[in-house]
Amino acid sequence: MIDRAILPAVRDALGRQAAVALLGPRQVGKTTLALEIARQSNAVYLDLQKTSDRARLNDPAAYLSQVEDRLVILDEVHRTPDLFPVLRGVIDEGRRRGHRTGRFLILGSASTELLRQSGESLAGRISYLDMGPVHAGEVDPGDDERLWVRGGFPDSFLARTGTESMEWRQDLIRTYLERDIPQFGPRIPAETLRRFWTMLAHSQGGVHNAAKLGAGLEISGQTVSRYTDLLVDLFLVRRLASYHVNVGKRLVKSPKVYIRDSGLLHALLGIRDRDGLLGHPAVGGSWEGFVMESLLAVAPIGTVPGYYRTSGGAEVDLVLEFPGGSRWAVEIKRSADAVPSRGFHEASRDLEVAWGWIVHSGSGRHPLAKGIESIGLRELMAELKGRS
Fold this sequence. Notes:
This protein is α/β, with parallel strands linked by helices. It has a domain at 7-130: P-loop containing nucleotide triphosphate hydrolases (Rossmann fold, 3-Layer(aba) Sandwich). It is built from 17 helices and 13 strands. It has helices at 7-16, 30-41, 51-55, 60-66, 83-96, 111-122, 144-150, 154-157, 162-184, 190-202, 210-217, 221-233, 262-269, 274-278, 283-298, 342-351, 377-387, and strands at 19-23, 44-47, 72-75, 104-108, 126-130, 237-240, 256-259, 304-309, 315-321, 327-332, 355-360, 365-369, 372-376. The protein has a 6-stranded mixed β-sheet with strand order 8-9-10-11-13-12. Strands 2-3-4-1-5 form a 5-stranded parallel β-sheet, sandwiched between helices. Strand 12 and strand 13 (372-376) form a beta hairpin. The model has no long low-confidence stretch (mean pLDDT 92).
């Protein structure tokens, strides 16, 4: 088992709230982490994909009242949406008997639907945590490039060979297309969605142009937006919003779109190994997305990410606004010799950033200009952790 950095946060949330929802893509390790918590706390684990476990909840209020002194873990809870109103009553009844925290750990693979179902019934009784693929801070420094190439899904990262890893990712993509996505959204032809997902991969880190993507697929821009929403809800795509400040300049306002896991990106593009990646046109966008996901995984709670670009050429890959309002500007480059461009300097002035960073693929850090440093990914992750 890879030690996941989110484990202490899950325990803390269970210590202060009755229910905790752990959200993230399928096969990212949510169940493994939950079973570790169950082993340490004598919890009840119910996999609601199993008919036998669902049968134990034929009379959920009666069953759950029998185990109110134990943590109950509900996996694949979206399969039983009628359970949420019952959980509300069980939580409120338990509170009256002194069982106020640590009642339920809920695991889910689709954000919007689970948030809607739980929010309607469990407002004020539930905390939400997002669990993504393994990030750079969770592996040894010598494994960074393997993590970048294979991505952070544990079975892909830990596969015995690169070929096994690639086949696992291709199988996961097929599972999403043929089973999971039809379950969570309206019926979409699998081949159409595969082409759309692949087109997003080819434009990794680019400004989202729904009309252009729609023309390539012979579908409307509105349909493109619906497909994108679905992939975002399943934690497969990140939509990075344009960061707005009142500077009297014309800003690019469309979001940028990234395949969140670099391994899935490479599988969609047919990139099998490091050499193939380094020679591929998507290498820059791939590295940018990989770095961004690792940074956001350790950013303080409440951090607002975005990107900044003006029609005049001022640009920052990643803007981080921290609770309290201070901002960092982050430029992501593969080369350790990269220097800030004039557009980066101009954007940093527009944004009045507290500090600017040029993230490279090596280690170490050194100043480049006043308020700007060149820094390795792990060193910048440590800086972010220090702000938490």
